[in-house]
Amino acid sequence: MSAEPLVAVLIGPGGVGKGTLAQRLVAADPRLWLSRSWTTRPKRATEKGTEYAFVDRPTFEAAIDDDRFLEWAEFHGNLYGTPLPQAGNDVDVLLEIEVQGAEQVLRQNPDAVVFLILPPSMGQLEDRLRKRGDSVAHIEQRLSSAPAELAKGHELASFVIVNDDVDRASGEILSILEELRRQRRTPSKKD
């Protein structure tokens, strides 16, 4: 059995439901620990404030200087980053991050498993962005960057999941994670 924790990464365009899936996954699987990302963007009116560690730019930049991030990136004028994992023993790490961050994670940990989360359609993605209270300018910015994010995401992804139903999508991810854990526990047989 591998001593290293499994690192699972959720990527996809804004509004695709990564946060909702991440919450479902950790609620359903006690062996998953969700790393809480930092951001310099303001909290949305629809957010509770626990979705990210909301910090100002100088605080974030000081953490960069202190090498406190596993990955970080600037996206649409805001900084986003994943603190170095503090997961503890016998748990796997779940990251909900931007595509740029996934590239950094894979450079450091090529065995990380990347799940590209897709919307059922671009129209539904736009509807989700509107429902979460984003400004029109932000929605347009997110939608214009989505094709490039999706193209890069397909290059990085170990698995592609369509988030058309959160129960089905989270169940699919949990099944994949369980199979990966089983493979890690079972020593490979050599001829």
Order of helices and strands: EHEEEHEEEHEHHEH
Say what the CATH topology of the domain at 7-35 and 91-185 is: Rossmann fold
Average pLDDT rating: 90
The biggest sheet, with number of strands, parallel, antiparallel or mixed sense and barrel status, is: 5 strands, parallel
What distance separates the N and C termini?
A: 20 Å
Give the overall shape.
Answer: globular
Would you count the extended β strands for me?
9
Q: Return Rg in Å.
A: 17 Å
What structural class do you assign from the helix and strand content?
alpha/beta
- Helicity range: 40-55%
CATH class of the domain at 7-35 and 91-185: Alpha Beta
Name given to the CATH architecture of the domain at 7-35 and 91-185: 3-Layer(aba) Sandwich
Features:
five-stranded parallel β-sheet; Rossmann fold; alpha/beta; globular; 42% helix; 6 helices; 191 residues
Characterise the protein shown here.
It is a single chain. The chain is of the alpha/beta class and 191 residues long. It has a domain at 7-35 and 91-185: Rossmann fold (3-Layer(aba) Sandwich). 42% of the residues lie in helices and 21% in strands. It has 6 helices and 9 strands. It has helices at 18-28, 57-65, 99-108, 122-131, 136-156, 166-185, and strands at 7-11, 32-34, 38-39, 53-54, 69-75, 78-83, 92-96, 113-118, 159-162. The strands form 2 sheets. It has a 5-stranded parallel sheet with strand order 2-7-1-8-9, sandwiched between helices. It has a 4-stranded mixed sheet with strand order 4-3-6-5. The protein is globular, with a radius of gyration of 17 Å.
